[in-house]
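Sanity check record (used in CI):
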Amino acid sequence: MAFEEKVDIPTLSNGDPHVRRGQRGFPLLPGGYGRSAYHIGSAPTYALRGEGYRLWDDRGRELIDAKNNFTTLVHGNAHPEHIEAAGRAMSAGSCWGIPNVDEWGLAELLLERLPGLDQVRFTNSGTEAVMSAIRIARVVSR
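Expected output for Aminotransferase class III-fold pyridoxal phosphate-dependent enzyme:
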């Protein structure tokens, strides 16, 4: 049996291109979207681009982005200074598996701003950060 046959795809109107895009997403992503808290109900709106506090969706509407990616985009989408800084950083290389001076600089900045810290550990994910915190807690609480 094909994957699409196993998924409960809501019956939607075929006249709206937004709805067709939503139906395509249902077999790919649960509910048609990749985050569990985005939307409940009919086919979701899909963002095509963002600039500052504005978003443009697949229906051609300009929207105000009140979520700001759940507050991680405090400066909005595609901020010109962020794009320029990211371009500068990427032109020097994007990722290494060894320490680098930018990592040291950020650690020094954090230690200056947070005087209760002695050291900084950078991780790749929240899961890795929690695992590190559990290891530290086990050592400290022995």
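The helical segments are 3-6, 17-28, 80-91, 101-113, 126-140. If this sentence no longer matches the regenerated tokens, the check is flagged for review.
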